[in-house]
Amino acid sequence: MINLKYFIFFILGACIISFLKVIALDYPQISITRRSHCDSCDRILRWFEIIPIIGYFIVHGRCFSCKNQIDFWNPIQELLGGGLTAYLIFQQDTVYLPLFFMLVLLSFSDFAFGYIYPIFYLLSLPTIFGLYHNLHPFISLIIYLSLLLLSKKYLLGLGDIEVIAILSLIFDLNITLKVILMACFMCIISYLIKKKRSFRFIPYLAIATGIVYLIFSFKA
Question: What's the CA gap between 50 and 207, in Å, rounded?
Fold first, then answer.
């Protein structure tokens, strides 16, 4: 019965990740009547094609109509999202779930378009309210203002600064610095591989937050 509970949360988390990607890619034109469709030929997908993770393998990674390859990152993202959701439930750290979902949504938007919508920050409110007795507003303000000043000389996106400020509000300075350093390290690795000088930083911050959580298992 316990295993079934975690499996249900795993599936729920995978579904939420898939839904967040739809919101990120379609916002603000998203419609409540929207149906999932192929990105290449716009064919409406059948019910078994939109099953998280499994749907990709049912269709062998290709659209039935146009035969174009479906992005393999789709099931990977759903797998990671489902796994993280189940793990947070197992660790009884559900207070962090809204924060991670916000980071995922922002990552999809930043990766796809290079910008984010501040309204997505509202997803972090349940985490902030749940940890109101452990927040770090002074540190968050100092970090925000410092990075804002640095952005006048260096290429720092306002969205990146705001996300780091939210992280520093929720986590202590030690955890926040670990996240930033981990994100920067991944950027360096990405540069060495792709030789690309500019980065959309929020996806790296999101991944770094997950890694730091798994390594240091910070508690509410």
Answer: 25
